[in-house]
Inverse folding.
């Protein structure tokens, strides 16, 4: 059962009556060592009483709050820590719906998430954001939504399924689960005074909500200062100690992230552990976690453990994942600490460093014990249009992936996207390619890449070449996860396989598929917006694992190759990318021709 | 001139343009050592640029923000600290209007006050609160209003000029300058679940604002826990280290006060300096300051200096008077630190311990230099009804102060209010008093006390006896400052003098007057609500000083005797008080007869 939660304002009378001993509590946790993140102490042997999903009493003896029907949990000397908060993240990165994401992370002690549904915004616009928001509010834990700020991420260089406007932002600020603006990624726009970006920030500030930042540049000079002046209240793009220090000095909170691929805690937490900065402005987050990470490694528990391993005092690390986060979003009276009036989100653990998540209570209800879920995470009934977002317009054929030479020649010099292992930026390469029967052919060390428009059924296919994956034989791989506008990216060595893979995703409504020698050898169905599955994380993680194995079977041995695949259209990161508008020279921020010479 | 201030939301474009070097700043402060309360560091040689009353740039070199018309202040290596915030206070305690209070404290570096106009609420109700709120918003510094919660303070035991209802609270939450609910003094009501008190708290929480607390009991057991469960977010009534620790553990902020008569910092700050609690939840405030304190000793600068003398690190003490306060009221993006976007409230000082307030800038405008005001503090045009609040109904005569014996006797045993030096509680004494011509007479070691109803012109006078002031000869003293319902209290040894004093206050519209041998020897006019003067603090302080001297001339040598006088009707503090309903036995919370036997 899910604890239906009254507002703080409506809970007062009951909480007072329980604390005063006039009414019995719903739940009392006895004999715990309470981690008090407000005072930064451990209070040995303290007890809590919970009523209506909120803490009513915290003190040395809750006996007076126990009555008929009060459930008792004996902590047996274990620690009580507040439920963990993820200060910034994208649910879609787990390829899971909010419900299934919640079900995956609750056993890891996450009881609050602040998520930015940026990916679905690109596919379904404000309506998609609303659905994520609505399913978030159904959960037995606190899932708050940050309104996406930048769809498209690169106006003029890509076409999204829908755009987000400043009016959309203003409207969303009135929704109950919206806590602020999602990361303002268009930092060049803010710095340049782009009126649309500033209007989104202003709408958020006028609503008294929190403006999320994203300053993805190592330049801490004038552009950084201009961005800080624009109003971003936090930033999670720092990687070095100097980044974290610079942000905090500007009155921004430094969010330190440990995601599946992000490892930015160790390099920055020394701002506190060695440089001695006041820790109050540091927040832990994940940003992006794959389902496999959630299943195998954990979520915010993993981040807190890591912060402690990096030298943070356990209580300070816990503050960074509880109170600091709540304060940042103006929710410190609502959650983030074990104190009267707050949502009764609490974890029992027997060790403050290893941090085993033994018993998780959210809003006064036991939601997980020893890694097992004890409640359901309700699904929204996602409307049909969210499950039919792959609009190819027609069946694709091998010929759609032919790159025609425009003149009679036996070779051309083409621009080639060079994927580099473990790096987000690509290289802008050039290669002389043979022309056979008027068709430009990839050489053996490269593959073709195609961007298949899938939002407006235009049937448009943009073709190009990519190197670095190491594919051999006859293969293709297609994905409708294709940041940020999420068209379909197909990479392959065989045009028939490429067409088959693309059509397959049209058939299943999106996902990732790998084909070899004319047959599908792996499939991850992501039917919702082509981004998410409403199956459990364990199933999705198994399919994703199979997908990675299939890529290896096709000859790809790159680390994190799927991420490279899904970022081929990310036209905000250098150097050469592909979009529905054509090949994009990101360094010059313009669409460019495929051929170096006049082919 | 006063800096008209645009909202943060409307300022963004200008701030970015200045930080980026595209537009010139209004003001640049060069070569300062910036106290960064966000990171808790001093940044040597840093500079700030200010535009539109807000910080646009904070960094090592603001040269790029200087243009034609940019004013330059060279800090010459002095420290830049954020303007100081008073976390909880009553402007009326200074006997000054908001404008004159602001003018008195700006030279001391106070740039933000959170004030609870509880006194005027008792006299003029919601309309009075609105006027205080409106004048507050005219000031060149930030004067936020907390909506008074408890008028009357003791329902049933006193009659105020107006009452404050839960609907009033809900309405006030929509006013622009209201930041929350003023101290919820009716802690027995909260603990007992009084619906009116809980409705006021709920209205405040529903508006997303801060609930001020006031738990004036040493009992840290069940009643304290019940009060904490009621939703108070802070408390300034603690006096001992255990009080402060207990509050912070419950997720309440501990406000440590140093007022004219309150000395509660030294006893509690050890919670941080010795007990090692996280300092973020500690806030400094004054609560009540007399005009003399403001003129002679200072305001928040005095409190910060004192906290440092008590062992707090200077940067931690400054956080307690800047960032911690701003965060508490949800204003950390708006003020309380030197950081982009915040109101440009900054002090230049050459020493972080002695803390001389050398130059005060508020919203980017120099408001005081070396103790001298450089701007005006605008007055509201207070409406006539606020200047005519002493409604006696008729001229009082000596006979009104006669205590008649109801039967033929030569003596009676009367209850006597015993004033104790340096203590707020009074003693409930008894004395056998002579009856002469049917009138009960005070003996030489005591005086008469009368409560003259002044809100509704009923002409009602409640008479009693008081001991402890030490008055001799023929004298009387009257005051319309008479906490909390602010009728008129007259103490005297001579009934003709008492009548003359009372009539005199009726004539001048309120204040304090001292009479000796039939003539007035001191007068402090407080024409606004009978509580405040709109003359400068220096003038009011001089008159108040003369008043104290006059009391001494009448034989009173008690420390702080005027405060004792003005608290004689404070029917929430034991043991025996006087109200318009009669003599009040505060221990039993009931009106009681004047005579012990059936007189």
């Amino acid at each position: 059962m899910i604890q239906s939660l009254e507002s703080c304002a409506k809970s007062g009378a009951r909480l007072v009556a329980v604390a005063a001993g006039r009414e019995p509590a719903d739940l009392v946790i006895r004999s715990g060592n309470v981690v008090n993140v407000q005072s930064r102490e451990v209070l040995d042997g303290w007890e809590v009483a919970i009523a209506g999903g909120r803490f009513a009493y915290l003190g040395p003896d809750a006996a007076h709050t126990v009555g008929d029907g009060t459930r008792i949990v004996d902590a047996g000397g274990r620690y009580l820590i507040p439920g963990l908060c993820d200060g910034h993240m994208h649910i879609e990165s787990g390829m899971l719906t909010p419900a299934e994401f919640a079900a995956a992370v609750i056993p890891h002690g996450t009881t609050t998430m602040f998520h930015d549904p940026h990916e679905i915004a690109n596919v379904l616009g404000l309506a998609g954001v609303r659905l994520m928001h609505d399913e978030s509010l159904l959960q037995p834990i606190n899932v708050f939504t940050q309104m996406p700020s930048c769809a498209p991420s690169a106006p003029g260089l890509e076409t999204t399924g829908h755009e987000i406007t400043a009016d959309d932002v203003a409207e969303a600020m009135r929704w109950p689960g919206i806590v602020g603006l999602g990361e303002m990624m268009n930092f060049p726009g803010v710095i340049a005074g782009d009126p649309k970006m500033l209007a989104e920030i202003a709408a958020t500030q006028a609503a008294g909500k929190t403006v999320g930042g994203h300053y993805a540049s190592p330049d801490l000079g004038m552009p950084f200062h201009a961005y800080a002046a624009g109003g971003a209240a936090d930033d999670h793009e720092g990687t070095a100690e100097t980044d974290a220090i610079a942000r905090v000095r500007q009155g921004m909170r430094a969010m330190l992230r440990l995601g599946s691929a992000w490892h930015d805690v160790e390099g920055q937490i020394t701002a506190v552990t060695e440089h001695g900065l006041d820790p109050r402005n540091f927040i832990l987050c994940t940003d992006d976690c794959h389902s496999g990470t959630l299943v195998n490694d954990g979520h915010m528990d993993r981040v807190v453990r890591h912060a402690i391993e990096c030298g943070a005092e356990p209580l300070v690390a816990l503050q960074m994942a509880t109170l600091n986060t709540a304060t940042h979003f103006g929710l410190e009276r609502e959650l983030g600490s074990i104190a009267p009036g707050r949502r009764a989100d609490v974890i029992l653990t027997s060790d403050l460093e290893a941090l085993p998540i033994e018993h998780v209570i959210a809003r006064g209800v036991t939601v997980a014990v020893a890694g097992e879920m004890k409640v359901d995470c309700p699904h929204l009934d996602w409307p049909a249009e969210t499950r039919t977002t792959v609009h190819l317009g027609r069946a694709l054929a091998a010929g759609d992936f032919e790159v025609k030479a425009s003149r009679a020649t036996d070779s051309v010099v083409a621009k080639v996207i060079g994927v580099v292992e473990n790096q987000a930026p690509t290289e802008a390469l050039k290669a002389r390619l043979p022309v056979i029967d008027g068709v430009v052919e990839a050489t053996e060390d490269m593959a073709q890449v195609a961007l298949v428009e899938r939002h407006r059924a235009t049937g448009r296919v943009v073709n190009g070449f990519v190197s670095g994956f190491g594919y051999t034989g006859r293969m293709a791989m297609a994905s409708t996860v294709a940041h940020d506008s999420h068209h379909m990216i197909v990479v392959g060595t065989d045009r028939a396989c490429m067409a088959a893979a693309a059509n397959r995703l049209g058939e299943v409504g999106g996902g990732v598929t790998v084909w070899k020698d004319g047959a599908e050898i792996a499939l991850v169905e992501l039917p919702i917006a082509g981004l998410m599955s409403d199956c459990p994380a364990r199933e999705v993680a198994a399919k994703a694992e199979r997908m990675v194995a299939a890529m290896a079977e096709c000859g790809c041995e790159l680390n994190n190759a799927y991420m490279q695949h899904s970022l081929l259209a990310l036209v905000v990161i250098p150097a050469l990318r592909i979009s529905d508008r054509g090949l994009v020279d990101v360094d010059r921020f313009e669409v460019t021709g495929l051929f170096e010479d006049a082919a």
Observations:
- Chain B touches chain A through 66 residues (CB under 8 Å).
- The mean pLDDT of chain B is 96.
- The longest strand of chain B covers residues 41-51.
- DSSP finds 16 helices and 30 strands in chain B.
